[in-house]
Specification:
The structure is a homotetramer.
Chain A (H helix, E strand, L loop, with lengths): L2 H6 L10 H25 L9 H23 L5 H24 L5 H23 L2
Helix pairs in contact in A: 2-3, 2-5, 3-4, 4-5
Chain lengths: ~130, ~130, ~130, ~130
């Protein structure tokens, strides 16, 4: 069981959302941030770095947004729709863009294939959370 | 002149926004993140820490979101409305909530008065950026 | 297999360290940052928050340092001992302090027990990495 | 007066260091993180991006370490030499490396000249703090 789930099981939350769904989102956000950091590092080591510039930028944006969303989502005991909704929307959007770009390089670079997978899973998990919160 | 403005003046951007407006937002985001980090540290040192819990949480959320938005906004040479708009919206919303909460403690705690000021300036600067980007 | 390990297997590194050891450190750093973020959030929700102030502060410091170390460690294709050694040392030290403090609250608060475990594992993994790098 | 200095003036600290020195370090760390984020973004937009790879990587490391050090330094009311000393040492080392690399590109790229300046100022401010803390 992930730390996120273990943590959520130990303290009361006012966010009326299934703990499994919430923990899945926090884990996916944390994994996606890590994958994006590793992928942009790997991109910077490729011979065709000029072709990887868009991928590097999107990975940096995606890591930044996922890190912030993981923090805010872990912290929430009160739910502020006007903050959480657009933040999750920004997260879904950057995971989609970054996942699409990584997928374009997936056959050439295995690290981009792995990163695309992390982005897809995060897009999915944040989308599911967005669907149940008001 | 701030580093943000000096930087923006040295490289081409596709984001068709006045450099002064963009630099003001990046500076305000960076200052607000710093003020929120310092304020939650100061809150933790107060005798009435129990009454400061909401303020601490909002400062942590605000620092996380402002840091991510500063990164994404600094990095942008391409503008993705589906990412940037909701991210700026989340930022405006958390700066407003955090600024309101800090203001409630402003007479008691000078550090909250300073943080409220940083939040208001950031809310304003991000709001102005949001108004001109599509 | 973790993303960190999959990533390390896909690109050349100049850091002449066993990939398993490096991936274990990156995973432990990322997990520890996540656990510390969740634990300080949980601490802030406890009735005896005044007694949790040191724990909250150490968790915030630990999350900050682990996040930076995870980034630098993921990114390294060149190894700079004058940066990496003290950074890993700072990380081992904060994980020890934070783990000790969390352990003091472990019987009262399950979330602190979980966080202490994450800190111990990270202290161990970074210590092992420190032992093999020059 | 910067937010860091205003904040430090409003709450008691156990770190027995001149507030001006501490505030100068926090401001320099925050500015350096911002400059490094902006500089790697600018590097990614240059035609000779292949020659900028080392600069991009060092800027990313420098931003990560400065951000963590700014957080820990802002937060401190208790001073832990075993954490703060190596963290400041890592910061001085990465600011020196990143400043050196940026300086190599300063005549070609104005954004690297600005970033080198921010790195030098941060190296200096953290070095001065390191000299007075035990």
């Amino acid at each position: 069981m992930s730390y996120a789930r273990q943590m959520l099981d130990t303290y009361p939350r006012t966010l009326n959302v299934d703990a499994g769904l919430l923990a899945a989102a926090i884990d996916a956000l944390s994994d996606c941030a890590q994958a994006c950091n590793a992928d942009n590092a790997a991109d910077l080591g490729e011979h065709n770095v000029t072709e990887m510039v868009t991928c590097i930028r999107l990975c940096l944006d995606c890591a930044d947004i996922c890190t912030a969303t993981a923090g805010v989502t872990s912290r929430q005991t009160e739910y502020h729709a006007d903050v959480n909704r657009p933040l999750l929307e920004a997260c879904v959007a950057i995971c989609r863009s970054c996942g699409d770009e990584c997928e374009r390089h997936a056959r050439m670079h295995e690290h981009c294939r792995v990163c695309a997978e992390a982005c897809r899973r995060c897009e999915q998990a944040c989308g599911e959370l967005l669907a149940v919160v008001k």
